[in-house]
């Protein structure tokens, strides 16, 4: 992607050169000024330029958005900037792309939208990022200040609408401070527990004159983050770990966001503690490691759910104990004392009471724990028990050649055909769960999905954001469902225009599959509005967009087609017709006991 | 229907003996009880900027905290406002309220007041005044000030603790109450103690959360 950014720069410099040559008489002087202008950019003259300058100062290289009336001044300022703007087909896609960009790069992703419908179209993406604590900054245009409150054309109370789904938002009221508002929003998005922030930009404020350079990104004084946990509680927790016989580490998304994967891996391996991840925590610990029990929760592995139910000490790091993980509270790790590491004090004892609350940055606190724990727990029997559960409840599946194609086979085939650092994005539904269960994740920031909000349609725009943030030699694979893909597939036009090398595998069962699975289990098989037999042919649709289209119906087509799709330089879509009756197991029914997961339909 | 994974079915699996209550606390047979709601006053010092009241009230409504009253007003520092909230929640809920409030960027500090804190509310009570002498006798009883009177009605202003105002409303009831308007509780801590101060805010954030609940050291090993 840096290539693309580079494409913009020479043109810009040419223009600058032209200007400078006309400004100065001697070519030598022009060169001098040119060298100077690279280090000291021209002073800002408008609010919009201050906004863009704030982004540049923060090191922003890419932004995702859709142009519109009220945001036009900002786009005009972007025209002269080196920031590479990816024009999306819909603002929801811009928000998801920025979200995924934030996950993969670790730096806040930027999205832009105009006022009114532009801003409201961002709301789903903001809510998604908010639930998953993904760093992201949204910049929205707003009608001129004098029209605010008058129900003007394309006016929405954007800060009002987005308050519940953002970490913080600001209505900018002054051209002199608008740049600093953006700097602060950027700092807030990434600091402490990350999250989405929003700055609402009235058109008169961005159009207004100013020569004020934005302040450097920094969080307001009232925002405080505790980095180190209380030593006394660390010591008590360490003692608890040393004395436990059935310890388990539970790594959440905070481990990845806090760059604590390495510290957690070392701690687990040193003390031989079995490791479970939450869904956002996937990639924090290598799933091919002996100590890994993979993911727990509603569709977690049987062994992870057995271990979490029977452990005596639960070391939860950067997890918020969402109901999809815990099942019913009463039966969640009922014998376990909880050591809870989190940077957000409000997560402590929110859902599950923490016996040892350790507030602080995940990496720092794990280092504190590492220093405090002298002896490894005596847990030989426990580890053997976990291995036994691994073989009792193995994630093997049947794939008879004469029956319809099983989705698990497709996920595994794509995993085998790609490198370890391949980034997987998904939509939401059955396909997402198969992508969790049957892909072996080994590295942080390679799993990009909508966890807390469960946003169907997340997969393709997230793949666009991930592709732009990823290294050029990293593959990006998107698993989507037919229903989920249909929600945001207009993003294919963007992928084609930008020639983004993404492979989309649509696990097509012509159902809203997860709903169909629940209807079979809990609504007597009454498939109300979940039967999608009117699906388009996605391979042909992809071709209509200018992407490569493939189709798989049988086992013997899988390997070759995947290879062809992966080697295509640009976006490709594989319409994979899977067994329409395939369901996701194991499954803990909503609010159920994690240890009582069902392995088949009749156990529900 | 075919399919499903192999392994012992749910009924063949061991189940732990323990349980948690609905607040996620492991049930100790000795203190099995779930926390009952209690009424308390929370004071928050906030940046005096547009939208902060909506941030705070929105937080309460979307998190389903049961709010009894909410008042807001400026402080001696013109950049700071004080929000006083009366809530009725079980203890874990009250902890959550404090932590969630503290998380809002414009919130500077949050404190739950002691039960002996000074709590005052103002009420305007408009009653039928067919018997002015009796009405005025009741008003005197509650230190009520007459703010308006007409041939048919009298309106009184009463300040005091919530209980006093409720007692006054009960007593005025005999004359026939036409309308009532109440402000909700505002409160300050007693003596030299600061209600919710900007100083030591750093400490109040996380260490408060650390120490709110005494943690138990391991006792079963």
From TrEMBL, chain A:
Annotated pathway: Amino-acid biosynthesis; L-isoleucine biosynthesis; L-isoleucine from 2-oxobutanoate: step 1/4; Amino-acid biosynthesis; L-valine biosynthesis; L-valine from pyruvate: step 1/4
InterPro entries from the UniProt entry: Acetolactate_synth_lsu, AHAS_TPP, DHS-like_NAD/FAD-binding_dom, THDP-binding, Thiamin_PyroP_enz_cen_dom, Thiamin_PyroP_enz_TPP-bd_dom, TPP_enz, TPP_enzyme_TPP-bd
Gene Ontology cellular-component annotations: acetolactate synthase complex
Name of the protein in question: Acetolactate synthase
Regions crossing the membrane: none
Magnesium listed as a keyword: yes
Taxonomic classification: Archaea, Methanobacteriati, Methanobacteriota, Stenosarchaea group, Halobacteria
Sequence ranges of Acidic residues compositional bias: 11-21
UniProt similarity note: Belongs to the TPP enzyme family.
Keywords: Amino-acid biosynthesis, Branched-chain amino acid biosynthesis, DNA-binding, FAD, Flavoprotein, Magnesium, Metal-binding, Thiamine pyrophosphate, Transferase
Residue span, Thiamine pyrophosphate enzyme N-terminal TPP-binding domain: 46-159
Residue ranges annotated for the Thiamine pyrophosphate enzyme central domain, each copy included: 234-369
Cofactor: thiamine diphosphate; Mg(2+)
GO biological process: isoleucine biosynthetic process; L-valine biosynthetic process; sulfur compound biosynthetic process
Gene3D superfamilies linked: 3.40.50.970, TPP-binding domain
Thiamine pyrophosphate enzyme TPP-binding domain segment(s): 427-576
Stretch list, region Disordered: 1-45, 156-178, 191-219
Cited Pfam families: TPP_enzyme_C, TPP_enzyme_M, TPP_enzyme_N
From TrEMBL, chain B:
InterPro entries associated with the record: Acetalactate_synth_ssu (IPR004789), Acetolactate_synth/TF_NikR_C (IPR027271), Acetolactate_synth_ssu_C (IPR019455), ACT-like_dom_sf (IPR045865), ACT_dom (IPR002912), AHAS_ACT (IPR039557), AHAS_small-like_ACT (IPR054480)
EC number: 2.2.1.6
Domain ACT: 41-115
Compositionally skewed regions (Basic and acidic residues) per UniProt: 25-34
Keywords from the UniProt entry: Amino-acid biosynthesis, Branched-chain amino acid biosynthesis, Transferase
PANTHER family from the UniProt entry: ACETOLACTATE SYNTHASE SMALL SUBUNIT, ACETOLACTATE SYNTHASE SMALL SUBUNIT 1, CHLOROPLASTIC
PROSITE patterns membership: ACT
Keyword Nucleus: no
Gene3D superfamilies for this protein: 3.30.70.260, ACT-like. Chain A, domain 2
Family under the similarity heading: Belongs to the acetolactate synthase small subunit family.
GO CC annotations on file: cytosol
A molecular function (GO) term: acetolactate synthase activity
Protein name: Acetolactate synthase small subunit
Gene this chain is encoded by: ilvN
């Amino acid at each position: 992607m840096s290539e693309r950014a580079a494409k913009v720069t020479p043109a810009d410099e040419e223009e600058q050169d032209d200007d400078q040559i006309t400004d100065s008489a001697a070519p030598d002087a022009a060169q001098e000024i040119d060298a100077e202008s690279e280090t000291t950019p021209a002073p800002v003259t408008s609010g919009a330029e201050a906004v863009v300058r704030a982004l540049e100062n923060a090191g922003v290289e890419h932004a995702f958005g859709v142009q519109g009336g009220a945001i036009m001044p900002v786009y005009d300022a972007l025209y002269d900037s080196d920031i590479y703007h990816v024009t999306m087909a819909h603002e929801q896609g811009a928000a998801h792309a920025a979200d995924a960009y934030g996950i993969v790069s670790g730096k806040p992703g930027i999205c832009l939208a105009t006022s009114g419908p532009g801003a409201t179209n961002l709301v789903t993406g903001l809510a998604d990022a908010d639930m998953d604590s993904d760093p992201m900054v949204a910049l929205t245009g707003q009608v001129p200040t004098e029209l605010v409150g008058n129900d003007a054309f394309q006016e929405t109370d954007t800060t009002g609408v987005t308050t519940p789904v953002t970490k913080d938002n600001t209505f900018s009221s002054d051209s002199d401070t608008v740049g600093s508002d953006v700097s602060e929003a950027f700092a807030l998005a990434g600091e402490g527990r990350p999250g989405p922030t929003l700055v609402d930009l009235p058109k008169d404020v961005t159009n207004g004159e100013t020569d004020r350079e934005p302040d450097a990104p920094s969080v307001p004084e009232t925002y405080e983050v505790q980095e180190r946990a209380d030593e006394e509680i660390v010591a008590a927790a360490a003692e608890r770990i040393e004395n436990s016989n059935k310890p388990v580490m539970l790594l959440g998304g905070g481990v990845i966001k806090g760059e604590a994967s390495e510290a957690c891996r070392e701690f687990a391996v040193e003390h031989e503690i079995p490791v479970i991840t939450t869904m956002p925590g996937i990639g924090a610990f290598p799933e091919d490691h002996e100590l890994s029990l993979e993911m727990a929760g509603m569709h977690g592995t049987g062994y992870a759910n057995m271990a979490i139910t029977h452990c005596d000490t639960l070391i939860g790091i950067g997890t918020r104990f969402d109901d999809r993980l815990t099942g019913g509270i009463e039966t969640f790790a009922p014998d376990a004392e909880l050591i809870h590491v989190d940077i957000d004090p409000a997560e402590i004892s929110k859902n599950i009471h923490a016996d040892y609350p350790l507030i602080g940055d995940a990496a720092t606190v794990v280092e504190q724990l590492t220093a405090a724990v002298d002896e490894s727990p005596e847990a030989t029997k426990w580890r053997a028990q976990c291995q036994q559960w691994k073989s009792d409840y193995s994630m093997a599946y049947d794939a008879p050649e004469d029956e319809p194609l099983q989705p698990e086979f497709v996920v595994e085939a794509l995993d085998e055909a790609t490198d370890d650092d391949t980034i997987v994005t998904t939509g939401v539904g059955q396909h997402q769960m198969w992508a969790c269960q049957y892909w072996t994740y080994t590295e942080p920031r390679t799993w990009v999905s909508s966890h807390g909000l469960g946003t169907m349609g997340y997969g393709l725009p997230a793949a666009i954001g991930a592709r732009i943030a990823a290294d050029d030699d990293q593959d990006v694979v998107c698993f989507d469902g037919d229903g989920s893909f249909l929600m945001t597939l207009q993003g294919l036009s963007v992928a084609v225009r930008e020639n983004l090398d993404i492979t989309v595998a649509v696990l097509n069962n012509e159902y809203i599959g997860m709903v169909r699975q629940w209807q079979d289990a809990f609504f007597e098989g009454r498939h109300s509005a979940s039967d999608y037999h009117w699906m388009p042919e996605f391979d042909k649709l992809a071709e209509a967009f200018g992407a490569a289209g493939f189709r798989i119906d049988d086992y013997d087509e899988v390997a070759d087609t995947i290879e062809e799709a992966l080697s295509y330089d640009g976006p490709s879509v594989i319409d994979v017709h899977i067994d329409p009756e395939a369901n996701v197991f194991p499954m803990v029914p909503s609010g159920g006991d994690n240890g009582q997961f069902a392995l088949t339909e009749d156990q529900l | 229907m075919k399919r499903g994974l192999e392994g012992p079915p749910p009924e063949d699996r061991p189940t732990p003996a323990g349980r948690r209550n609905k607040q996620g606390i492991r049930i100790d047979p000795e203190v099995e009880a779930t926390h009952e709601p209690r009424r308390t006053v929370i004071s928050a010092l906030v940046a005096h900027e547009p939208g902060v009241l909506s941030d705070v009230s929105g937080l309460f409504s979307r998190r389903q905290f049961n709010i009894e009253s909410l008042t807001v007003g400026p402080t001696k520092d013109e950049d700071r406002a004080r929000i006083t909230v009366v809530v009725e929640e079980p203890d874990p809920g009250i902890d959550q309220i404090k932590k969630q409030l503290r998380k809002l960027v414009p919130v500077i500090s949050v404190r739950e007041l002691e039960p002996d804190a000074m709590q005052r509310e103002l009420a305007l009570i408009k009653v039928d005044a067919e018997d002015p002498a009796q009405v005025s006798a009741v008003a005197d009883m509650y230190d009520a000030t007459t703010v308006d009177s007409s041939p048919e009605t009298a309106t009184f202003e009463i300040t005091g603790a919530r209980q006093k105002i409720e007692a006054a409303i009960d007593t005025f009831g005999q004359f026939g109450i036409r309308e009532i308007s109440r402000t909700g509780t505002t409160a300050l801590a007693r003596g030299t103690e600061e209600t919710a101060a900007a100083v030591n805010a750093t400490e109040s954030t996380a260490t408060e959360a650390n120490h709110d609940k005494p943690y138990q050291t391991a006792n079963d090993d």
